[in-house]
Amino acid sequence: xxxxxxxxxxxxxxxxxxxxxxxxxxxxxxxxxxxxxxxxxxxxxxxxxxxxxxxxxxxxxxxxxxxxxxxxxxxxxxxxxxxxxxxxxxxxxxxxxxxxxxxxxxxxxxxxxxxxxxxxxxxxxxxxxxxxxxxxxxxxxxxxxxxxxxxxxxxxxxxxxxxxxxxxxxxxxxxxxxxxxxxxxxxxxxxxxxxxxxxxxxxxxxxxxxxxxxxxxxxxxxxxxxxxxxxxxxxxxxxxxxxxxxx
Length: 247
Known about the structure:
Layout: H1 3-31, E1 39-43, H2 49-57, E2 62-65, H3 68-81, E3 88-91, H4 100-106, E4 109-113, H5 116-131, E5 139-146, E6 156-157, H6 161-169, E7 174-180, H7 189-206, E8 212-214, H8 221-226, E9 231-234, H9 236-239
Parallel strand pairs: 1-2, 1-9, 2-3, 3-4, 4-5, 5-6, 5-7, 7-8
Helix pairs in contact: 2-3, 3-4, 4-5
């Protein structure tokens, strides 16, 4: 990317970031909350590492990816261009157990944990990564909840959350941070996020430190914040229409 093109893209991203932050600020004001209580995750799937680097230059510190195949190389490229940057990478997409070893090398947090077998795979992978000097601390995890019971799109059924949370908490290598969910297709977001808020309250009874609620994307972040989201995952509103990772 040439100098002129890079400057133009930086301006685009700065405008997108300012607009999203204004939306978060307004939503927090309407909900009587502080903007500092809501993390902004830039979902950079299908966008190049150069975009993540520019967003980091603009002050963003949290980035999310959906596929390990894309993320592993992107994180390496980002780190080569911004060595020492104080950023955290999150896995927010559906995760197969055979990708756990790779994810444990680059992710600070996995938000899509939805089964005991995945917990076991991630715990083993995090232990191996730590032993090999590829990570220094526990892997933060959020349990992905299926709000409508349709687990085909990923997510743990609501009535299995407590058992899965206990498994995470007892793993030794994983740190339970809270819950994540996506509003079901065709469902009213407010009702969906209210269910998630209730599930989070139940979880905190036995796991008081599991305070994170990751909910809300470009189209529904205001509703999610109103219902207690502490982390919004924004792609399109921040970066524009989906690009190509090779761009």
